[in-house]
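During the first year of the project, the team set up a workflow for recording each protein of interest as an amino acid sequence followed immediately by a discrete structure-token representation. This format lets reviewers and collaborators read both layers of information side by side without switching files. As required by the reporting guidelines, we include two representative entries from the current panel. The first entry is reproduced here exactly as it appears in our internal archive.
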Amino acid sequence: MDNESADILILIKDTGNYQVLKEWLREKDRFNIVLPSEDIASKEFDLCVLDRQGLIENEELLRDRKYDRGYIPYLLVLPESIASKTVEYLPNDIDKIVDDILQTPLRPMALSKRINMALQVSKQAGHLSETNKRLRIINRITRHDIRNDMAVIQGWAKELRPHLNEKGIPMLENVIAGSEHVVGLTESLRDVIQTFDRDNRNYVSIDLHKQLGEVINRRREVHSHAQIEYNPGSVHPTIRADELLTSVFRNLIDNAVEHNPKDTPRVWIQTDVKKARASVTVADDGPGIPPEHREAVRGRAEGGLDHPAAGLGLYLVDTLVTDYGGTMQIANREEGGTSVCVTLPVIEPERDKTTKQSEVPTHQHRRTQRSDADSDDEGPEQ
């Protein structure tokens, strides 16, 4: 904003400071001085420089205007001797609307630095606000318009099944699978957009085993052709996260199933707790992820999500796990396939907790019963 004009409102009662600031601004062609008047409420300005008296006398107006049409920075002029005691110097928590301090005596270099910095922050805040508006529009489109249309497509596709011959059924299955994939993408996109809105994310204590179990049961319904096995371990930790934690587990499982070309993909999920860190490992018997692509699939390689190997699902997992203070590691299994392990900080570990049978997810979609003798076949070490 160094070359852009800016309207600066002066609310300084001290005559000396007022004159110094006014003369300095007049020397700068890009600054337009907005003087106080009785109709100050109608004034348009990009930044306000004020002292204690000006702030107190116009407190209500300044609070209302702070974010009324974007973000307006307020710079408070204070004597150098009390600049570090702003909170004690101002009543009614009014200091919270002040963005920066201009210490007296006012010096040209300090004025230039503080004012330019404040205007730059204001410009960036404006861009961020506009970006958030556009993200909300995208979120609404994905959550409602696209999902509703895909629901219609899925409904008609299923109605079409009885009218097709044997050759047409596989084509219909491809249509249904494609529509389900689109719905999954809208869910991931919705969750990605939510990660940007950090101020409105509500972190709470979450029972990891319970939430993971609920997600697993739902994914078993969605991926009825897959074998999804879960070993919850003996420790059921509590972690601190928000509602997007379900997206972590959903995307890990979906990624394991959807990138596996086998007719019956197999997925093994297990949890563990060590040194106040809970781990959730999702392993599969798919083709694996080459080491050179492991940064790319999480959107960390050059090109970000535009990289050919990048995936929205694992990018979202990596982003959310990092937000929760955790980590994500990708490895290939010796038996073939991929193993993705996420770790999260534990806040309330509970050892040897007895789990009700109704709370433990059961494997509802195994096509064959496995005996004790082959229970460890191809699965990760328990």
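The second entry, processed by the same pipeline in the following quarter, appears below.
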Amino acid sequence: MRSEARREKKRRTKSRHTVLPYRHDVPQIIDGLEQLSQQLSYTLPESIISQMLISTDSFLAYAWSRHLFIGKRTAVFPSLDAARYRLGDSSLSSLIVDMESLTSSRFAVLEALRGHCLAKDGLRTYLLVSHPDPPMCAFFCAAGPFELLKRNQPVRQLREALLAPPLPETPPRFSPTEWQLLTRLAQGHTLKETARQLGMPYHRAVYRVTTLLQRLGLSTRLHLTQLLHRLTLDVNH
């Protein structure tokens, strides 16, 4: 009877060892994973965010939150509408918008950003762009207090750009009247219709458009119309 009990005990021990040979190390592995998870989750409470990334690119979101700034709480949202309830957070210091993966048109996003960023002091807003397009980049810079960053630059350079102080001199921004004019032109109205809607003499509207062409590096009104058309298209269409 004792011999049978010893054989049974040996068989059970061997079986457990075969199924889980490193069972004694499992608690250490779990502790290590838990510690790593805590490090990746940073030290700030769950309700506090200091950076916000607007992007539908999951690879960019992962790289941003896991490799760019370990030590800052970064929240990722697919759109500005989804992030609207957190845009007013007092702890938010940086807003990064991926202009290449938007779910709406660039013009609509710029209009929403103008309304928010011009009303919130201390918030630095960055626009991520991929392809060099001087007229479009000039439009982005003039649309509001935005800083442009190359989307595909190395991580170290991107981190340095984000940590750099704001430039002392920024290009002139569109005035409220100029933005209203551009908005109506982007909606397909003619310049005469736009001037009438804004209560502006036609020759004054022509002068403003000519000034805008010079600032954006465009030669004709047709080029401005084409630029506005590209800005009002959904990025992924």
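For the second entry, the following points were noted during internal review. Residues 2-37 form one domain. The two ends are 79 Å apart (CA to CA). Both points are flagged for discussion at the upcoming steering committee meeting.
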